[in-house]
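Reopening this ticket.

The earlier resolution said the output was attached, but the attachment link was broken on my side. Pasting everything inline this time so it's all in one place.
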Amino acid sequence: MYWKDLEVWKKSHALVFKIYNAISSFPETERYALSNQLKRAAYSIPANIVEGHSRKSSKEFSQFLYQARGSLEELRYFLLLSKELDYLTQETFNELEKESQIVSKMLNGLLNSIKQKINS
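Inline output:
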């Protein structure tokens, strides 16, 4: 299986585009601050999935999935901060939070599957 075939990669990759779209209306003063942090956290998720998938062992893959999960949680915090700073509407925040929760569940499911593989 190729990493592009992983549903969690597809969903997290799509989330990156949603983040880029959402931050396009952020103030110029946030260009190199919060906007940049959001982008970096967002694209780190699918990037870690790709890097982990290319590793030789399931154990290494799971380590990169944990990093992806950490980046996802970082993204969720930056989304909350953006909403509280009134850079995101409640509606946009809710949509991005929902997408983030889906990716989180998918990452956890894949991690559990790999753990079972490692333990058997």
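Reporter confirms the inline version is readable. DSSP finds four helices and no strands in the chain. Residues 90 and 114 are 36 Å apart (CA to CA).
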